[in-house]
TrEMBL record:
Organism: Chitinophaga eiseniae
Entry-linked SMART domains: REC, Trans_reg_C
Residues covered by the Response regulatory domain: 12-127
Ranges of residues in domain OmpR/PhoB-type: 134-239
Protein name, per record: DNA-binding response regulator, OmpR family, contains REC and winged-helix (WHTH) domain
């Protein structure tokens, strides 16, 4: 199966890169595997373009005229907390600057110089988790040797639903699904609060901390999982490459309800 058949239909990517030659190379390469790419050569043009239409991912150079990548990311996050943002950064970018980028809401960095194949793989892998096919409804994940079923709110041994080994609450189901759907991605705490609780306040934050502790106990069934807290930034579910993490979906029809 080629890479074009593996991506969702027509994902749209906003590329902000002031190097016109590199930008056109990246644009044509990603378009060759089925993505729609809009290339802007400065941060201000990219911001105006972002406000005109919906995008599935942003690739932002850090050093750009009129508005740099960090400034652009800050404005994007003021309007949209969920769209994935990756910075295209120089290898010499300081760790402190990268931490600032994560605090602004970045999902990762792609370090220059990068190969086009590496870029394809990073984009494809990330969109696989953040842009699932709209013809399917996610109802569970197989994680290693266990199945987490969000509809039944139970944990089963892999490939068997004859006897469950644990149960979880609706709120725990939402959190488990959210993290399992975004492995190895930093998720800001305020994003979780707004997405799952609908508000970002002290009471909601304390409530979430309690539930985070509960799902950590659920995840201990697979000891190679690590739900990491990144100080002043957010959380990340670290999943090793050799650990099976597979979606369970059912077709969506008019009678299917979330």
């Amino acid at each position: 199966m080629n890479m074009q058949t593996q991506v969702n239909k027509n994902p749209r990517i906003l590329l902000a890169e002031d190097d016109k030659v590199l930008g056109e190379i990246v644009k044509k390469n990603l378009e060759s595997i089925g993505y729609q790419v809009e290339h802007c050569v400065d941060g201000e043009d990219a911001w105006e373009e972002f406000q005109r239409r919906r995008y599935d991912m942003l690739l932002l150079d850090i050093v750009m005229p009129r508005k740099n990548g960090f400034q652009l990311a800050r404005e994007v996050r003021s309007k949209n907390t969920l769209v994935p943002i990756f910075f295209l950064s120089a290898e010499k970018t300081m760790d402190a600057d990268r931490l600032d980028g994560f605090k602004l809401g970045a999902d990762g960095y792609i370090v220059k110089p990068f190969s086009l194949l590496e870029l394809q793989r990073r984009v494809k892998a990330f969109l696989k988790w953040t842009r699932p096919p709209k013809t399917e409804l996610l109802i569970g994940h197989v994680v290693g040797e266990h199945t987490f079923n969000y509809r039944k709110m139970k944990v089963y041994p892999k490939d068997s639903e004859k006897a469950y080994v644990a149960t979880f609450s609706p709120t725990e189901a939402k959190l488990l699904r959210y993290f399992f759907n975004r492995p190895n991605v930093i998720i800001k705490k305020d994003e979780l609060l707004m997405k799952l609780w609908g508000r970002d306040d002290v009471t909601s934050s304390r409530s979430m901390d309690v539930f985070i502790g509960k799902i950590r106990r659920q995840m201990k069934r697979e000891p190679r999982l690590n739900l990491e807290t990144i100080f002043n930034v957010g959380m990340r579910l670290n999943v090793p490459k050799d650990l099976l993490l597979q979606k369970i979906t059912i077709p969506i029809n008019p009678q299917t309800k979330q």
